[in-house]
Request: fold
Amino acid sequence: MSSDPAETWARCLLAIEKKIQKQSFQTWLQPTRCSHFDAEQMVIDVPSSFFAEWLDEHFFSLIQSTVAEVTSLSPQISFFVVEEDGSSSFPPLSKPEVAVPSSYTFPQEDDLNLNPRYTFDSFVVGNSNQLATAAARAVADAPGTTAFNPLLIYSGVGLGKTHILQAIAHHCLQKGNAQRVIYVSSEKFFLDFIDSIQNSKSSEFSKIYRSADLLLVDDVQFLVNKETTQEEFFHTFNTLHQNGKQIVLTSDCPPSELRGLEERLVSRFQWGLVADIQPPNLETRIAILQKKAATDGIELPREVITFIAENVTSNIRELEGALIRLLAAASLTNQDITLRFAQDLLKDAIRTPPSNITIEAIQTAVCVHYNIPHDLITGETRKREVALARQVAMYLAKALTKSSLKTIGLHFGGRDHSTVIHACKSVQEKSKHDMAFREELDKLSELCQYTGT
Reply:
């Protein structure tokens, strides 16, 4: 296999072209280039962050399997945005793109690749992100002097972790609260470290990262199972913390769930404050859409904003993606944005749940999922696994049907409304601290809504 990235990628494209429709290939794959390829890393250049996001969501598995098939290697695949005018009309991916330049330079204050839109002023605060935002503002106002050091913010994909992280950087640079700001992804930290070893610049690497007044590291879960990099990060962390410098991290899960991360790092990540961001509620989703429309100077009918907010509930990225798609289509077709236009355009992306979901159907779905007989979920047994399933079923009944608390209680062996309230609160609390349970709950909710159970 040739070591030339362009030739390697050309071979991969030939294989991919045979596996997908011609139009899809010409639209999404043909414009791409490969700027770096080896056994560990493959960097694919794309024309925009929207482009990168689409490839990541729709073609990543195909690209990964084809690269393995053609090269017999399984490198880490990253998308790097290369735009001719240096600007972007779409928000960047929540995961910062990774590049491997031929002549590497360490991060400098004037080259942090910060998105100018990612500020505190543009961030919509709701119940789902209130604690994380308040802590981030406190850190930005007085880095290294609060009890929130380190500050670790975790959430699922597309909920605003990167926005908050970059907002801290913007604020500190504008107010002069930190002279030396470094903002990187953990993947970038890893690549910097590898490059320093290859080029005998380990001491320079350590000096640069350990001289930061404010170190912001996105997606620290990428450090998992990279033992030598973890060792370096451990010493960097210790040096900064001991010198009173501020550290802010983001992750896709709590530190305790980062399997493959050294215990001493997990412990240090928990020294300060660990705050999570939950999916936004309806009111927050409406506020996000209104703010984005106002920022772009676009007037949208209230019913259109409400329609999108009610039907796109998973994360902010998909919410804004639906809005971008709507605006683009209206512009291209020269049509007014009406509720009917939005419903027709987004009908493939938005699955409307049936209005006749029953409590019995929810009970059946939950019993099948937990492998529990139906009579136990409505009975008196208090075995842990049965009690959890019962609480989950009550929670979903409250969330997915219009039944009253009293009616829900009657379907679970005649329990009163206070029992249903307690069950809902217990499930909500558990989902805040247990990401695996939260994902399980989301899948169950989707099963109940969209499979006709």
Strands lie at 33-37, 41-46, 76-81, 151-154, 181-185, 214-218, 246-251, 273-276. The domain at 5-81 is CATH 3.30.300.180 (GMP Synthetase; Chain A, domain 3). The longest helix spans residues 316-333.
